[in-house]
Amino acid sequence: MGREILTVVETVSNEKGVSREAIFEALEQALVAATKKRFYEGTHAEEAQLRVEIDRKTGDYRTFRQWTVVADEDHEMPACQDAISDVDPAKWSIGDVRELEVESIEFGRIAAQIAKQVIVQKIREAERALVADAYESKVGELIYGEVKKQTKDGFIIDLGDNAEAYLAREEMIPKEILRPKQRVNAILYNVNREGRGAQLLLSRAKPEMLIALMKKEIPEISEEIIEIKAAARQPGVRAKIAVKTNDHRIDPVGACIGMRGTRIQAVQQELNGERIDVVVWSDDPAQYIASALEPADVSGIVLDEDARSADIIFATSDQLARAIGSQGQNVRLASDLTGYKLDMMLEEEYRARQQNEAQQYLDMFVSRLDIEEDLAMALVEMGFTSLEEIAYVPAETFDEIELDAELVELLQSRAKEAALTDALKQQENIQEPSADLLTMEGMTSEIAYSLAARGIITIDDLADQATDDISDIEGLGHEKAGQLIMKARESWFN
Question: Of 284, 290, 283, 280, nearest to 344 (Cα)?
């Protein structure tokens, strides 16, 4: 019996390149499963815990049954648990495992069959682990392979050395056609260590693909003379990439484009003619946004850095149209590149909006603070836009409009009172989010209460929303908002 086991271990270890210890462990698991099948299947004792110990030198093995010592109130499975009151408290404590040697099953046909299944699974796991270890460090790099075959939703790419990767259709450039035996470049964006699904995942549509190709074609980037700061793509159509130079003597845009566009053309050809705009990165957000919107000429930019948004002002309608681009391509890519939400408008629209906002602030100050219009206008011109700002700024702030101390004190007192009244009213109107919304997968209590403040109380309320309706909530964003809405809509189909 022991000799048979040693023979199996040696044979499998030599043929499959799996360690002897891994095979011994697989055999121990197999013998546990076979023992349960033989002695305990169909009985109340089938939940029994067993351990098999194989002698690594002789191949002989022993079988032990195990009981875990638990508190009396937790004693629910007598087949594998001992109540603390039923054992010697001087010898055993809660959490200890009591073992008793039992009859061992012969290493016969059933055990051998189960062992084979376990070993095959172990081999697969070992092979997946080897591939994962080999490619883990290559995530984000350009991978070169050969199209092996087409599947329903994508292509299997042969990378050599018994490694295969998966290129899904949604990760390909639109209208791209691949054929068996064709060589293809793609970015490795994920290594799946789980036992299900494709292990190495490739993409030709992600911005990282563009970045990797630029590094390959432009020596200054690989040498870190030029640094890539960000990239945004509409695969196969248009892309923007932001670069900065670490050597003031080198023009980053010219270096990336190359003589007569030779360098950038090589990248474009690999991406099926995708048009690439090279943008100069700047640590000044306004300058960066203006560069990202090229070829349009921007007249003015008003930033809100806290909200990560910007009002972009244009002198003429043709410059506005150029900034938006065909089907909104230019502004959408500029927004993705900079991370700012961009609101485009003409100068006259901006002036009209400013006047409208100023009038709203003026009316609010006159009515809520009970002051003259001239004083309210002076506050608006100073840049005040809320009662809280007036209430809590230092008193010296009002020196600019030459108010006496008594008037300043009265003004701030009225502003505090009005602001407190508004806060109390808001608290009264806020509803509690429902329990199902709070416990929904992917939801946080902060987001749930923010939704409730907008009247979105239940999962059904959330399911009725559009992504743009809630994406401005702090901690959400466009992608996360879409995921939560789709999760909420699952109830429609269940």
Answer: 290
pLDDT at position 356 is: 85
Q: Which residue has the tokens 């909200």?
A: 307
Q: What is the pLDDT of residue 493?
A: 65
Which amino acid does the sequence have at 188?
L
Q: Same structural domain for residues 113 and 52?
A: yes
| d(C-alpha 487, C-alpha 443), whole Å | 10
> Which residue positions in the chain have pLDDT lower than 70?
1-2, 16-17, 41-46, 107-116, 195-197, 424-430, 493-494
Q: What is the pLDDT of residue 46?
A: 65
Tokens of 69: 């010592």
Whether 167 contacts 190, CB under 8 Å: no
Residues 13 and 111 reside in one and the same domain = yes
**Structural domain for 361, as ranges:** 288-385
Residue 402 Ramachandran class (φ > 0 left, ψ -120 to 50 alpha, else beta) = left
Residue 45 belongs to domain with CATH number: 3.30.1480.10
Any domain includes 403: no
In a domain, 226, yes or no: no
Residue ending a domain, choose from 183, 205, 227 = 205
Q: Is residue 380 part of a domain?
A: yes
Asked if 427 and 419 count as a contact pair (C-beta separation under 8 A), the reply is no
Tens digits of residue pLDDT in 285-317: 999 999 999 888 888 898 888 888 888 999 888
Q: Compute the distance between CA of residue 32 and CA of residue 34 in angstroms, rounded to an integer.
A: 6
Instruction: Give SS3 for 275.
Output: strand
- Looking at residue 109, its pLDDT comes to 67
Same domain, yes or no: 110 and 177: no
Integer CA distances (angstroms), 169 to 100, 194, 198, 282, 474, in order: 56, 22, 14, 35, 33
Scan for tokens 């990248």, then name that residue: 267
pLDDT at 209: 92
For residues 264 and 268, give the distance between their C-alpha atoms in angstroms, rounded to a whole number: 6
Query: Is the bond leading into 295 cis (omega within 30 degrees of zero)?
Result: yes
Residue 171 sits in a domain whose CATH number is 2.40.50.140
Q: Closest by alpha carbon to 227, among 250, 209, 245?
A: 245
Amino acid 111: pLDDT: 60
Tell me, yes or no, whether 104 and 147 share the same domain: no
Number of domains in the chain: 4
Q: What does the pLDDT read at residue 125?
A: 73
